[in-house]
# Entry
Amino acid sequence: MTSWTRAEMAARIAADIPEGWYVNLGIGMPTLVADHVPLDREVIFHSENGVLGMGPAPSPEEADPWLINAGKQQVTLRTGGSYVHHADSFAMIRGGHLDLCVLGGFEVAENGDLANWATSDNDTSPAVGGAMDLAAGARQLWVMMEHTTKDGRSKLVHRCGYPLTAPACVQRVYTNLAVLDVTETGFRVVELAPGVTPEALTAATAAELEFAS
Amino acid sequence: MIDKTVRSMAEAMDGIKDGSTVLLGGFGSVGQPDALLDGLIETGATDLVVVANNAGSGRVGLAKLMELGRVRRIICSFPRSQGSVVFEELYRTGKIELEIVPQGTMAERMRAAGAGVGAFFTPTSYGTKLAEGKEAREINGRWQVLEYALHGDIALVEAWEADRWGNLTYNKSGRNFNAVMATAAKTTIVQAHHIVPLGALDPEAVATPGIFVDRVLHVPGTGVFA
# Structure
């Protein structure tokens, strides 16, 4: 069974983001999505630490230690971008002004619950960052993650076992095997990666799947 | 004549008491008031509650303050970051209290404090373990969690430019928590890269008006932030 690479997953997500959207990309894999949105399609990227209109990574000459993203990587500001303080930055998130947030995930449940910040209830010092604000506040939440863990367990589940980031917040999941919508009746498969059969996807998934007929 | 600039670190740190709640600006190393942190360490103040996004890294600044046993409790959103070795060790051995707060809730709790709002309801954290024990209410069809204002005794802030009235500008993503923390403390102490004459700052560009600022110390940038 073949599957999408991370770059292909990022390109697949980028293709679904229309011009004019305000978008926050979570730390880690989702940051790859920005590389696949052409600059002439005006998508405005937001970073929690007060950057609206974030551009690509700087060239060595452009690098500015004062300009970082939420993952603490150096970035640039697009023409038209602006800086705000943390409370205003999170007002954009919590006030429902972002069209979309793409987050990574440990587990997504078929009712749209997301777990992506702590891996157990007795985690020694879990770090939540802005994940709960983004999950509760963005108008749409998409999750980008591998379909299974390194040891082969499905990350799409009936109910999350890890502590929740937010209940019933995910609308869509992009994995290396498929694109799935979260519907009132559970996961509905929108698209399969090349070479992935419905049977193979079902075998890799610990939740009910509905396939478009 | 109003002049909030101070000539020495001792003057900047004057009167900080044991048991104070200290709001510490910065996000990672950007906008972090390193010189004021060193000044705070020098004062010997202890039993502190520190509010900061991260729990320090390496063995300098906030990490050093914690390693010296001077922080009773840390309130932050992202304690675990690269090099947060001192915090991890203290937390594992039960020598520091930790309150995890979603980053936006933390910022909003300080905005509330600065604006005289006692508490507010937010959907963030509803249905998660961070909402356990907190009052929740359904408002406009959505379940929300009660969060209280977060006041500081002291705010330590890094600014780019300051004038003698305490008007401040910041540099790019260095604004982060600094501008909201400046509003939320009884005493706001600023380290500024540049001190400029009154009138030099464009009134439209002042990000923190001087009403929120008590003391300004000139600390030219060093290293990559020079």
Remarks:
- Chain B has a mean pLDDT of 96.
- The domain at 17-100+151-220 of chain B is CATH 3.40.1080.10 (Glutaconate Coenzyme A-transferase).
- The two ends of chain B are 31 Å apart (CA to CA).
